[in-house]
């Protein structure tokens, strides 16, 4: 499954540069760039929670799984 994110959208909406966001959540600029471009596909829960708190949204507003999200496997 692929993880999609809206980090760039929220960052721009809050008037932050990538550098501003990186400093606010204590990561390096490269991490933010890679998350936004989809190269860093599995951010830690800690990192996702920091971003969600900064933007005042649930984690699910920032990150979502592909078409399999929300489906329940039947055994």
From TrEMBL:
Domain HTH cro/C1-type as annotated: residue spans: 7-62
Alphabetical UniProt keywords: DNA-binding
CDD domains: HTH_XRE (cd00093)
One term of GO molecular function: DNA binding
Protein name per its UniProtKB record: Putative transcriptional regulator
Pfam families in alphabetical order: HTH_3
Gene3D superfamilies: lambda repressor-like DNA-binding domains
Species annotation: Bacillus benzoevorans
């Amino acid at each position: 499954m692929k993880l999609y994110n809206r980090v760039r959208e929220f960052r721009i909406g809050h008037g932050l540069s990538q550098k501003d966001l990186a400093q606010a959540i204590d990561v390096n600029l490269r991490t933010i760039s890679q998350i936004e471009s989809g190269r860093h596909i599995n951010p830690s829960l800690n990192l996702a929670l920091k971003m969600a708190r900064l933007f005042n949204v649930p984690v699910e507003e920032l990150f979502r799984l592909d078409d399999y999200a929300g489906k329940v496997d039947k055994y």
